[in-house]
């Protein structure tokens, strides 16, 4: 039985459900791959049953609609798996995955991943992890429908920061245009809000990178009011 709680302070994602030795064993079962920022890890529609275990860096998961419009599905980071849905049902990958920054991941083929799950009786653990992702997706849809632009921007920044919280990383490696595309908000609106936040001491910005200076204040902006 696993002794690690899903809320273990120094880990997150699927890794938080494993013991340290199990995570090391999972990493050893695959091959290490490095991806520079903005590189694509997975293609939507790809049928290769590959699973990526993220070790370093954060990624964005993006669904592309038939008309070419992109929808941000999730932000993932160290400890997360990507590609496990297609590996489980042997279907197409449902979204593309892009590196937000330099990333290191272990690439696992289907058979070694299945053997690891069977050896440690982790099928139920994986299912709970996947269900938690589905709940996060439903919450994102609710935010899109109910929160105003400033709240959604704050929520996105919190999501990006929390994806690498174990390292205390308070940088958001996204351009204003990428942020605007991710939220379905105009770049002008993003620029105006970031300008206001800079004056209030919440953030510091430079091209392609935003540093969060006051995380509690950002969390208050993201909350319902």
UniProtKB/TrEMBL annotation:
Signal peptide: none annotated. Keywords: DNA-binding, Transcription, Transcription regulation. One of its GO terms (molecular function) is DNA-binding transcription factor activity. Residues 147-216 form the HTH crp-type domain. Residues 14-117 form the Cyclic nucleotide-binding domain. One of its GO terms (cellular component) is cytosol. It holds the Pfam family HTH_Crp_2. It comes from the Bacteria. This is Crp/Fnr family transcriptional regulator. It comes from Glycomyces paridis.
